[in-house]
Design a protein that fits this description.
This protein is of the alpha/beta class and 342 residues long. It has 2 domains: 8-123 and 306-323, Nucleotidyltransferase, domain 5 (2-Layer Sandwich), CATH 3.30.420; 135-300, 2-Layer Sandwich (Nucleotidyltransferase, domain 5), CATH 3.30.420.40. It is 44% helix and 19% strand. The strands form 2 sheets. A 5-stranded mixed beta sheet has the order 3-2-1-4-5, sandwiched between helices. Strands 8-7-6-9-10 form a 5-stranded mixed beta sheet, sandwiched between helices. Strand 9 (270-274), helix 9 and strand 10 (297-299) form a beta-alpha-beta unit. The longest helix has 26 residues, at 240-265. It is globular and about 65 Å long. The chain binds 5'-O-[(R)-(carboxyoxy)(hydroxy)phosphoryl]adenosine and zinc ion. 5'-O-[(R)-(carboxyoxy)(hydroxy)phosphoryl]adenosine is lined by residues 16, 142-144, 169, 172-173, 184-187, 190, 275-277, 279-280, 307-308.
């Protein structure tokens, strides 16, 4: 019967330095999740070079999509829709995915569903938590974003707090660079911190006046840089592991305290985390503990679904598809797309 037919979505993600494609069945079953990372290329420059990212996406995208289709064991004729990230992100990088999605949509006469990248990150939580449904609170911590949001319904968000300056992942990357760990810094700080004392240095935990759920990470970043300068000027040996662990404790405490406070204030007993920084082992541990102590159910995606991937875009696209979201062939990349905009 037509009503019982599975819904298959091919999703494409190219907003930053990962070219990714995935086939998702009925919103929560991942049939394939192919990610081609450009990290090794950008490492040479200490960060993502937008022009190189766009060129590499063009080179890789067809291959990545073919592999996603093959792994899933489906053809373009089996698909019900194409989902694609159209913002926020690097405009040249986004355009590659958007153009590809439009071409397939046009050639196969398939509905096109543009997806907000952050909605994708949040939706990653649905993959391995079949019982998770809105409403819940979600802390989104990635390289470009730090948001505390109430997921009121699928695709409906109320933003309680956001960063005033650097994103959490950006702070990790900048601090890692300062202590000579290279790009991307988050995983390296995560690893090195295990050898350091998180209480060695007391870095400042910023609070934003009259905005209890907002974040600010530029202060802690500057404090790390000042500490390094002081050590160098005074000839004191630099203890990289202690600095990494102390910085990480500071960021993790702020993220956890804000998220738990919001959950209590809004009487929400489900808390999820999302985005690249959500794969941080100390953050996961701290959130798990704080949630347990406060009788809050804690949800988190596996690390592979935390960092950029297309499976999460396919999940978000499915719920948008059900709600009737359709984009035309005039869909454009929107580098500063706001969460909740369509
Ligand atoms: O979500 P994502 O892959 O891309 C964006 O949408 O920005 O996040 C990438 C960010 C980078 O800043 C990276 O350093 C950080 O996530 N990250 C981590 C960890 N793994 C990735 N930060 C802390 N600990 C980690 N284990
Ligand atoms: Zn991302």
């Amino acid at each position: 019967m037509e009503n019982n037919k599975d819904i298959l979505i091919l999703a494409i993600e190219s907003s930053c330095d990962e070219t990714a494609a995935s086939v998702v069945k009925n919103g929560r079953t991942i049939l394939s999740n192919i990610i081609s990372s450009q990290i090794d290329l950008h490492k040479l420059y200490g960060g993502v070079v937008p022009e190189i990212a766009s060129r590499k996406h063009i080179e890789k995208i067809n291959q990545v999509i073919e592999e996603a289709m093959e792994t899933a064991g489906v053809t373009l004729d089996d698909l019900d829709a194409i989902g694609v990230t159209y913002g926020p992100g690097l405009v040249g990088a986004l355009l590659v995915g958007v153009a590809e999605a439009k071409a397939i949509s046009f050639a196969k006469n398939l509905p096109l569903v543009g997806v907000h990248h952050i909605e994708g990150h949040i939706s990653a939580n649905y993959i391995e938590n079949p019982d998770l449904e809105p409403p819940f609170l979600c802390l989104v911590v990635s390289g470009g974003h730090t948001h505390l949001v109430i997921v009121k319904d699928y695709g409906e968000f109320e933003i309680l707090g956001r960063t005033r300056d650097d994103a959490a992942g950006e702070a990790f990357d900048k601090v890692a660079r300062a202590i000579g760990l290279g790009y991307p810094g988050g995983p390296k700080i995560d690893k090195l911190s295990k050898e350091g004392n998180p209480y060695a240095i007391d870095f400042p935990k910023a609070k934003v006046d009259e905005a209890p759920y907002d974040f600010s990470f530029s202060g802690v970043k500057s404090a790390v840089l000042n500490h390094l300068n002081k050590c160098r000027m005074q000839g004191i040996p630099i203890q990289e592991a202690d600095i990494a662990a102390s910085f990480q404790r500071c960021v993790v405490e702020v993220l956890t305290e804000h998220a738990i406070a919001a959950a209590k204030d809004y009487h929400i007993n489900k808390l999820a985390i999302a985005g690249g920084v959500a794969s941080n082992s100390t953050l996961r541990g701290a959130m798990e503990k704080a949630c347990r102590e406060n009788h809050i159910e804690f949800y988190h995606p596996s690390p592979i679904f935390c960092t950029d991937n297309a499976a999460m875009i396919g999940v978000a696209a499915y719920y948008e598809y059900l709600k009737g979201t359709r984009h035309g062939l005039d869909l454009n990349a929107v580098p500063n797309l706001k969460l909740g905009e369509r």
